[in-house]
Amino acid sequence: MAPGCKLQLSVMATRPVEIGPAGLHAARAIEHLRLARGLTQQQLAVRCTALDRPMTNTALSRTERARRRCDIDDLVTIAVALGVSPSAVLPLPTAHGPLSHAADIQGVLLG
Asked: Structural domains in the chain?
């Protein structure tokens, strides 16, 4: 480094990023779809692992309770393991904006 130059370091946020309305909807939809199919968290975890995305029932539990963020790779694998399109666990756009804050889970099952 040249004399007189300052080194700047970026600092990562120390608080976790909150789970927003789409994440909350997805968490509820995953649990609802799993229960509708008569699967335990352990059984769904085994299905996800068989799809080359290792997952524990603890991770699924935390995801369903919105205590763990669900990344896109997890979301796609969970949806496939549940036999639905990944879009089936996401909220639908509404006239009030891109996300439904009070999305009806029944629409997920009928869609």
From this structure: 21-110 (1.10.260.40)
